[in-house]
Amino acid sequence: MSRGEQSTADETSSGADGPRERPRVDDLLDELELLEQQVRAPEAKAQLAETMRLARRLDIDTRGTFGNVVTGGFDRTDAAEALVGSVVFGIPMLVESGTLEVGSFVAGNVAYLVGTLAFTVVLVHGLIYVADFQEVEVVNPVLGLVPRRMVGVLSISAATATALMTVWGRVDWSTPWVAACQVSVCFVAMAIGAALGDILPGS
Q: Per the record, a Pfam family (predicted)?
């Protein structure tokens, strides 16, 4: 039996209580936490804490589809990736006349605008932290609550939508409310693109 076949057999072999599941990093962390409660020596506790940090970084069972862990805050590289993603996804919305029509419709009802913006925020959060494309860590949240990556992605996509729709003459700011609503429609697509552009490369 080859080594690979032996490994597979070990992972799926059955014991007295039924088939054994493959151990996960969470199981290792549970054992380390129990051990931590019993250790008294400061040097040993420090080494154990470092081992637990490494185990969390190597948590392969919770990594995303593309196998990376996105760590750190939101730096210039992330901002550039979000900008590229927002432009790629947003250009079709910029040249589509339907964007202006939908924006004008939304302008007629504040609840529609609020719903559109709320939907965008929820969707971006889902793409970054829930959809499991990558495992994304929350680092130094704004005010201790709002993920910095969320703020960066939404800010860049909003600024890009506003700037391009203005420069390309797609909105008329003599009617600011309608113009803002039209920009918000383009912002939806750009926010999706910015989120994907930021997280898919990994970092």
A: DUF2391
